[in-house]
Every structure is written in C-alpha cells, then in structure tokens.
Design a protein that fits this description.
- The structure holds two protein chains of two kinds.
- Chain A is mainly alpha-helical.
- In chain A, the strands form two sheets. Chain A has a two-stranded parallel sheet. A two-stranded parallel sheet of chain A has the order 2-3.
- The termini of chain A are far apart.
- By secondary structure, chain B is an alpha+beta fold.
- Chain B folds into two domains: 89 residues, Cyclin A, domain 1, CATH 1.10.472.20; 82 residues, Roll (SH3 type barrels), CATH 2.30.30.
- The chains are: A mainly alpha, B alpha+beta.
- At the A-B interface, helix 1, helix 2, helix 7, helix 8 and helix 9 of A face helix 1, helix 2, helix 3, helix 4 and helix 5 of B.
- Strand 3 of chain A pairs parallel with strand 4 of chain B, so a sheet runs across the interface.
Chain lengths: 221, 217
C-alpha cells in the first residue's frame, strides 16, 4: 500500500461538490448499488462509523491499563485472561474476540506488529493509525525494532530485550507498559491520562509527560 | 501466496512517520468504504480470510501504490462481484440493472450484535502436537493461496511459548474449504536465528502459528 502518510483531504469534506474525486464517486456508486439492492442499511453504516470514529479508541485501553496498575486483582486477571478482563469493562467486538496482554518489564519491552496486514486490537485501541498499516513499520518492526523505536524518539538500553509479537492469527495483543515511578498515589482517572495509544502498541512510553514533567520540575528545580 | 503484503524483514521502505493528531479517517469516502466492508462482511457470503486474500491477490506495484482503504474498496468490489451480489456493470454505473440476491441487510439496531460475534476458537478433536518449551521448525512452504505463515520465519527453528487453543484455519477458509480447526501456538524465534549473525542479539520475535505450519525440531 502507499506509504504516503497523509492522503490528501477529500474535497467532499469541504463541500466543493464539483471537486469530488474519482475514488469518492466510486465509493458512492458501490454504496448506491448495495443499498438499492437491499444488502446494506445506510443507517447501519452511520452507526458503524460513529462507533469507530467517536466511541471506540485508545481511551478504552487506557482504562484497562490504569485499572491494572491500581488494582492487583484486576492486573492478575488481565494477565491471565485478557479477553474476559477487558470484556468486563464493556470493551468487546470485532478484531478483539481473543486478546492477550503482554507486560513490559525492566528487562523486556514488548512491541506489536502485523507484518501481513493490519491486525490490531480494535475494542481497546480503536482503528489503527496509518503508520501501523504502512510498509515501513510492517517491514522493519521484526528485523530492526530498535530502529523503529528511534523513529518514535524512543531509545531503550541495549540490554533491554525487545520482544516482538507478530499478530498473524486472530489473537490480538495489548502491551501493558511499566507504570512510571512518579505516579504513586495517582487515581485511576489520573493514570488514564498518561496511557497513550503508542505505549499500548510498544512504540512509546507512558505520557504525555505534562504532569510527570511538572512533578519532576517541582522535585528537581 | 508469496505476495508483497508479506512485508516482514524487507528493506527499502524508509522511516516510520507518525502523523501528529491523526484523525481516524482522512476523507469522507474512507468512512463509507470502511463501514460498507463491515456491513457486507456481516452478510456471511464470505469470511475474513477471503477478505484478506482479496486484498493480497494483486500485483506488487498495485498493492504498494494504493492507500489502505483503496485496497479495502477494491477487495470489496471483487468480493461482491465474486459472490454474484452485483454485476461489474452495475458497480461501474452506480445503478441497479439486475434483481437483487435474497439477502437481508444488517439493520442499524443489529450492529451491536454483529460486532459481538465471531470467536475463532473451536472445541479440539485431537491433542496438541506441541507443548510449551518444545522446539519446532516453521515449514518451508510456499502455497499459491492465502496463508498466515510469514516468509521470514519459514525454515527457522523456534520454541513454543504458549498454546492459544484450537482455532479455525485461515488457509482453508480463504479458499472455501471450511473451518478445519487446528491448534494455534505462539512460537518464539531468537533474532539471530531469523536474521543471522548481524541480527540484534537481544531480540525475540514470535508469530501465531497453526499446527500444520510447524514440524518437530
């Protein structure tokens, strides 16, 4: 697929009907035929789009991770049977019927990829970003993961083992990052704010560092 | 199929470039192509493995030249035509010319149920051949049809780390030959086993491998 990271914005988004692209026309033609034949309910399409554009996203995964950080029993359940532990919070659905949680430690850093297509744990992370589906990530994550992490500004110690999970079947993987040491006493709600999408894929660490940095600044002026 | 989609370990694609504040969709048509693919997939005329196969079966130049949702759209058109749900002329014209097949659409109120279905695990009929700790070699196999064993592990020896249970077999489902459930394993390879002496000495890579992808080692 094209490695272009930002496809041009569709003119239809801006209301210039005369500039409708060829691909937009093609999708409209297909939708028209499928709707008129009675195969598709346009209202169902709207519901699906709303779910994946507005309701499902990395905030679900952040809830899971923050809860695991604060509740040892939930943490044990998540590591033993992530599918059930995640479903207990209401996060179920396509591309997530079998989920396994893998936990980072000082000795091992986990990274998730799908070299063959774009497999990704939708119920906890939503739909994958373009880079996750791109040829650069899919080709390099398994042969040069430290180089990939450097693309994200992440340099791990050489003695930290990189453990890459290539999602080649219907099992989906969620990385549980290490809890930053400066967050003792934080509530689950506060912790959710620092659990980013990338740290649950393995291409980042918990952040943004707003409050962490502020605390660090206060401690080390 | 030894297609270009099987990208693991290739060189030459450049750096990963994350997009700050990336939207879920980059254009209105992407939303519709995405939702159409899910809604049509729910009709049961094809399965996820046939969908993946339809996205892969194309020239390397075509695959690399299209964006992600262009590949989805292209595959959906092929699947619709292949299942005789619409004729190519109808899709090209955006106009119905033939009576529809007897298919009931997924209604908006059924979307929740649609998304909740679909476990791939099945009751096992035989005992697993491998147990955690066993060494196994990924077979040197090159099927013309859809497979989920990436080229970069074929012929290499790894260690079984976990047994996921018994799951439907994509290679069979993609060509309409049924679920053929098989034991599914996490098999973990050392970086240097896969990439040679220049490989990262502190790297381990696993794939999820069906039992028929593996042989004892």
């Amino acid at each position: 697929m094209s490695t272009s990271q930002t496809p041009p914005a569709d003119p239809a988004d801006h209301g210039h009907a005369s500039e409708i692209s060829e691909i937009e026309l093609r999708v409209r033609a297909l939708e028209t035929v499928l709707v008129e034949k009675g195969y598709v309910d346009p209202a169902a399409l709207d519901v699906l789009i709303d779910i994946y554009e507005h309701r499902v996203g990395p905030h679900n995964g952040a809830h899971v991770v923050a809860k695991a950080w604060n509740e040892p029993e939930y943490h044990a359940w998540l590591m033993r049977d992530a599918t059930s532990a995640i479903a207990s919070l209401g996060y179920i659905g396509s591309e997530g019927v079998h989920i396994v949680a893998v936990e980072n430690t000082r000795r091992q850093h986990n990274l998730v990829v799908c070299t063959l297509c774009s497999c990704y744990p939708w119920p906890v992370l939503g739909l994958p970003p373009v880079w996750y589906k791109s040829a650069p990530y899919r080709s390099r994550a398994v042969i040069d993961p430290r180089g990939v992490l450097r693309d994200f500004g992440l340099e791990l110690p050489a003695d930290t083992e990189i453990r890459v999970w290539d999602s080649t079947a219907e099992i989906r993987y969620l990385v549980v990052p290490m809890r930053p040491p400066d967050t003792q006493g934080w509530s689950e709600r506060e912790l959710r704010e620092i659990v980013t999408r990338d740290c649950m894929i393995g291409t980042g660490l918990p952040g943004p560092p707003d409050r962490l940095a502020r605390q660090g600044h206060e401690r080390h002026p | 199929m030894n297609g270009i989609h099987d990208l693991g370990g290739m060189h030459g694609f450049g750096a990963v470039v994350p997009e700050p504040n990336e939207p879920v969709f980059h254009a209105a048509w992407e939303r519709r192509a995405f939702a159409l693919t899910l809604a049509m997939g729910a009709l049961g005329r094809w399965n996820i493995d046939m969908s993946r196969s339809a996205r892969e079966r194309r020239s390397a130049a075509d695959y690399l030249g299209k964006t992600y949702y262009e590949l989805w759209l292209d595959a959906l058109e092929r699947l619709v035509i292949g299942a005789n749900l619409a004729a190519p002329e109808e899709i090209a014209a955006g106009r119905v010319m033939q009576p529809p097949a007897p298919v009931a659409a997924v209604r908006a109120t059924d979307v929740g149920a649609l998304l909740a279905r679909g476990p791939t695990e099945r009751p096992p009929r035989v005992a697993p051949l491998f147990a955690p700790g066993d060494r196994a070699r990924a077979r040197n196999m090159h099927p013309q049809s859809h497979t989920r064993l990436p080229r970069y592990v074929r012929g290499h020896v790894g260690v079984i780390q976990h047994v996921h249970g018994c799951h439907v077999f994509p290679d069979s489902r993609a060509i309409g030959r049924g679920d053929d459930p098989q034991w599914l394993y996490v098999i973990c390879f050392e970086g240097r086993e896969l990439w040679g002496a220049d490989g990262d000495p502190n790297l381990k890579v696993s794939v999820d491998a069906f039992e028929s992808y593996l042989e004892p080692a």
